[in-house]
Amino acid sequence: MLALALHRTYGIRVQTEECNLIDPDSRKTLDQALKGKTIVIPGILNQVLRWIGGLIPPALLSRMLGKRWRSARKNRADLEIVEELMDSEKKLTTPTAPQVISLPEAV
Q1: How far apart are CA 88 and CA 93, in angstroms?
Q2: 3-state secondary structure of 57
Q3: Dihedral of CA 48/53/54/56: which sign?
Q4: Residue 29 gets which letter from DSSP?
Q5: What distance lies between CA 60 and its chain's CA centroid?
Q6: pTM above 0.90?
Q7: Where exactly are the structural domains of the chain?
Q8: pLDDT tens digit sequence for 74-98
């Protein structure tokens, strides 16, 4: 059915064997899109999170997300500083091979 709907709607030809390889969430999303739904949220957890998100006032949700992303950016910057310090310490403590200098022989 999906292969026929894709062909009729978009002109895409799909063999039925290939159509069976689509994972269930993708199949559900395609089926809903072909039925005309403009927003499809696959997965129970995603649907529950979307529903809970609808209960929170947008201003509060925006503030919470902003705080979360600022914290994530700060943690990321701190991590990069630590990585740079570790790299510079490795450069300082990495032993180098002794250099051999050949001197000209005395005649």
Answers
A1: 9
A2: coil
A3: positive
A4: H
A5: 25
A6: no
A7: 1-42, 43-85
A8: 888 888 887 887 777 666 665 566 6
